[in-house]
Design a protein that fits this description.
about 950 residues; alpha+beta; Elastase, domain 1; Neuraminidase; 6-stranded mixed β-sheet; 13 helices; about 15% helix; about 45% strand
């Protein structure tokens, strides 16, 4: 019974958390596409990206047998789509339809491996994980539902910590790089365990609003790696095979395997946590860390990630739980002042000079979701003015020249060309573009104090190198090395930077003329982002509450040669490499000639990937049981479609449906068609006024259309949406009456039409992690539509004009993450509530109005409502394996309304409270909100109860 209930639960709630029915957006319509077909892959790419796409295809084939090896399964042909016009660095594996989307520009925190190779190893492993379900009894849901059938065994049984942890193991074990080799990837979990203790499975895997918890990539890697190294190399290979072949088992991921006593999923975690805790304790005793002087520490998670200085002041990039990413100023006493709220999707590397802040923001294209640029901005902190400098290509890590009126930045174009450019700080024009012979990816450049040369890190085939460039030639100061190092800072005759040769990030120095690095700090958990103030070294030092700002003077520096630096870390990657087929040699040349052809996106609009034999699923998420539906989504995300039959007793005019959305034009086109036929008794009045119940055959046909122009703009941490639209619908109902003996009736026909225009506009500040709602901004919805109804049978006609607007204001509360929402609604109808379906009616009713009065809208309707919400407690409480309670939220609300009907005027007022819990059920990553709004209507002298029950990932 438990298995059946869970299966129903996940079928209803869309279990696949990875990419089920996800549409990541479209590229500009003018782009022409080609495709490369290899033995195991299809690569779709913009036409001008051909040489790079060939490299992707070649490397995909090279990695094929390696990423498959330790799971013992070879996938069938899979499609990869290369997104080249976005400043985002990411990858996504989807199963419905089967494809991988790769965003090809790298990011400034990359480890020492080419970005395409990172993506190929990591996402390639996800392909194997998903498609390995196509065996045994798990073939059944795939046969029954198409590609979405992969999501059932994966979403129902396999935890996301395994999916991502196993992929990180793969990227690490199959190369000389990978996140599993980075000390920064381990430090968050290690610091929490050693300073705070083991938080337990639920909190570590499902997260917390109270404390910062490492994500499932970092946690999953440690769980997967520890179990494979210390228990059984094939423990998860066997597990996936059992899940695929015997999915009817209760909790198949937790069943015994390979003779091991207990392999429940939380026991995987417990074994890894206990094992690693002992290794980390031993490492901690051997390290004997420094105790630097603390300049700034935080009572909560600090979220500091990078610092720089101007004079005696520090400036830091901060991204914590309560606020969106921002630049803050920290004075010598440790006092923190916010400078500028940047929001998410920005570059965290910035610079300050003469009270001007230099930084970058991702600027999305107003219409095309897959197109964006990383733009350079200058913010005058005295005049509070912001200025955008660049408008073409993407730029990263800008830095002011300390003695000249110049800026250096890393430039990336859509063909992955990477260069250092010198910019004019007044208008952003390029003064000089430096030559980059091997097109290695350049990271975080810095000027030398005299402003005559640059120091930076570059990623090459052999790993990272530290370089100096005097505008005539590039000189390698150190490397290549496959250990991770970052954050160069130049002062005097030395370059200071962070490196993890000791298994812990520490600060190192190297002469500006080159040589071997020397370690100068001995941090317990990790030291990064060095800078100097008044001759003292200042840097970020990690604790379980995030980075502290600390300093030490020359007398405290360790001065340890690199060859003498001990490494006491567990270094599980060394064992993992031995369990695999070997490391992929991406440098080896491949003479294979691949098939290249034009990819016509119009010819590939219809890509039927899934079908649902038990439900009618319409675009927009409407689902009816029982039914049958067929689903399509193009590989470029520009066209989606659902077609099916609804057998449900309700919505009879939607028995057959066809829904289609095309996003490849400037406007987004929606088209829906519905047809239904059924028999029912209808009361018909004859000429004498006598009524008859007549058996009637009814045929209903409906067409709907909508054209919208969605535009999105960005301003720092706020997003502005403007989406005007026009829409319309036509419905025709035909009635055929059966013979009623002595009385005969003619056929009847009725039509329903409506059409209108509307506008949605919002200006919303991005949400911080702890926010219940955004704490600044507004949303406006305005509509005007006309509704007509005519029935020949009764000669009745009806016409209705419907106009209105609703504004929601989001305001800060008394505390940082409190939320205040104010709603104002006006609605005018030419008559009382119209009969029939209204295509677009997003304006909201007061809480409890419909329940208490059983009334809809009158001719004129007004509403004022507000709600104040805050978190009462962050519980982090486990109820066995049934539920994990994360936080309890409460609030107060009030609603006032005035409704004018033809039959009279009504006043409505109500006051009440809100309470709901954020929780996870059955240790799955779906977060539910369960609670209620309870109040009292003084106008109706009755109680109001409205349930809260929804979920999200």
């Amino acid at each position: 019974m438990t298995k059946i209930l869970l299966l129903i639960f996940f079928c209803v709630s869309a279990p696949n958390i990875y990419a089920q029915f996800v549409n990541a957006g479209t590229d500009r319509s003018s782009i022409d596409w080609n495709k490369i077909e290899t033995l195991h892959y299809i690569v779709i790419y913009p036409e001008n990206y051909e040489s790079q796409a060939i490299d992707y295809a070649m490397k995909l084939e090279k990695a094929y047998k390696y990423v498959n090896y330790s799971l013992g399964f070879e996938p069938k042909k899979f499609t990869y789509v290369l997104r080249t016009h976005s400043a985002v660095a990411n990858g996504m594996t989807a199963v419905a339809p089967n494809k991988v989307e790769l965003w090809t520009k790298p990011y400034q925190d990359s480890y020492g491996q080419a970005w395409d190779e990172q993506l190929i190893l990591h996402e390639g492993r996800h392909v194997v994980q998903f498609t390995s379900m196509y065996r045994g009894a798990s073939k059944l849901p795939i046969w029954l539902t198409g590609q979405m059938g992969y999501s059932f065994p994966v979403g129902l049984y396999i935890p996301n910590w395994f999916m991502e942890g196993d992929a990180v193991v793969t990227e690490t074990a199959l190369s000389d790089f990978g996140r599993g080799r980075q000390a920064s990837f381990e430090k968050e979990m290690r610091a929490y365990f050693l300073q705070k203790g083991n938080p337990g499975y639920d909190k570590m895997i499902l997260g917390s609003y109270r404390d910062f918890i490492p994500d499932h990539y970092a946690t999953g890697y440690q769980i997967v790696a520890a179990n494979r190294v210390f228990r059984d190399p094939d423990i998860f290979k066997t597990k996936l095979d059992k899940i695929a072949r015997y999915p009817w088992y209760i909790w198949p991921f937790s069943r015994r395997s390979n003779g091991l006593k207990d392999t429940r999923k939380f026991k995987y975690y417990k074994f890894a946590a206990d094992t690693l805790m002992e290794l980390w304790k031993a490492q901690d005793q051997l390290v004997k860390a420094d105790q630097p002087e603390i300049i700034y520490t935080s009572k909560d998670y600090s979220g500091l990630e990078y610092i720089t200085e101007e004079g005696s002041d520090l400036y830091a990039y901060q991204s914590n739980l309560s606020r969106v990413p921002q630049i803050v100023k920290i004075d010598t006493s440790g006092f923190v002042v916010p400078v500028l709220s940047l929001g998410y999707s920005n570059g965290k590397y910035f610079d300050v000079k003469d009270h001007k802040l230099l930084y970058t923001l991702e600027m999305p294209n107003a219409r095309w979701e897959q197109e964006s640029q990383q733009a350079v901005y200058v913010y005058d902190m005295q005049k509070f003015k912001n200025k955008r400098l660049t408008h073409y290509n993407s730029y990263y890590s800008p830095v002011f020249n300390p003695v000249k009126d110049q800026i250096v930045a890393v430039e990336m174009n859509d063909l992955n060309g990477c260069n250092l450019v010198i910019l004019n700080p007044q208008n952003g024009s390029i003064i000089k573009r430096l030559k980059n012979d091997n097109n290695g990816y350049i990271i975080t450049p810095q000027w030398t104090p005299d402003g005559k040369s640059l120091v930076y890190i570059k990623i090459t085939d052999g790993g990272k190198i530290l370089c100096r460039n005097d505008f005539k030639e590039e000189k390698i100061l150190f490397g290549p090395d496959n250990m991770d190092f970052k954050h160069p800072y130049v002062t005097g005759e030395y370059v200071f930077f962070s490196g993890d040769w000791s298994g812990i990030e520490n600060i190192y120095q190297i002469p500006l003329i080159g040589g071997e690095p020397v370690r100068i700090t001995n941090s317990r958990f990790g030291a990064i982002s060095p800078t100097f103030i008044d001759g003292d070294l200042v840097y970020l030092d990690y604790t379980w509450k995030g980075n502290e700002v600390v300093k030490q003077n020359d007398n405290q520096m360790l001065n340890q040669n690199l060859t003498e630096v001990p490494n006491y870390a567990p270094n599980l990657y060394r064992n993992l490499t031995e369990m695999e087929l070997g490391k992929v040699d991406f440098k080896e040349k491949d003479s294979t000639e691949y098939s290249i052809s034009r990819y016509n996106k119009f010819a590939h609009q219809f890509n039927f990937h899934s079908w649902i034999p038990g439900a009618a699923y319409q675009l927009g998420g409407q689902a009816y049981l029982p039914g049958v539906s067929l689903l399509s989504q193009s590989m470029l995300n520009d066209a989606t479609m659902s077609v099916g039959v609804n057998f449900a007793a309700t919505n009879k005019d939607e028995k057959y449906f066809f829904n289609y959305i095309y996003r490849g034009f400037l406007p987004v086109i929606h088209f829906n068609t519905y047809y239904g036929a059924w028999n029912q008794n209808i009361l018909v009045i004859d000429e004498t006024g006598y009524g008859y119940n007549v058996s009637t055959d009814i045929n209903a046909l409906r067409f709907e259309g909508k054209v919208e122009f969605p535009f999105v703009f960005r301003h720092l941490s706020e997003y502005i949406t403007l989406s005007p639209f026009i829409y319309g619908s036509y419905a025709s109902d035909r009635y055929t009456f059966q013979n009623t003996g002595s009385i005969e009736f003619d056929r009847g026909q009725g039509t329903r039409t409506f059409y209108g225009i509307g506008l949605y506009h919002s200006w919303l500040k991005q949400n911080a992690y702890r926010n219940l709602k955004t704490n600044w901004g507004y949303e406006i919805t305005a509509i005007l539509q006309k509704f007509d109804r005519h029935y020949k049978m009764s000669g009745s006609e009806d016409s209705q004009i419907y106009s209105g607007a609703e504004v929601s204001f989001y305001l800060p509360g008394f505390e940082v993450n409190h939320s205040l929402q104010l709603n104002l609604t006006f609605l005018h109808l030419s008559k009382d509530q119209p009969y029939g379906m209204v295509f677009t009616q997003p304006l909201s009713m007061p809480i409890g109005w419909s329940t208490l009065t059983n009334s809809g809208y009158g001719k004129d309707n007004y509403r004022i409502g507000f709600e104040y919400l805050f978190t009462l407690a962050n519980a982090d409480a486990e109820i066995f394996w049934l539920a994990y309670l994360k936080r309890l939220n409460v609030g107060v609300w009030a609603d006032l309304g005035q409704f004018k009907f033809s039959r009279g005027e009504y006043e409505y007022n109500a006051l009440g409270g809100t309470m709901y819990i954020d929780m996870n059920l059955f240790r799955y990553p779906i977060e539910w909100k369960v609670g209620a709004k309870v109040g009292y209507s003084f106008s109706h002298q009755d109680y109001v109860i409205e349930g809260i029950f929804n979920f999200g990932f």
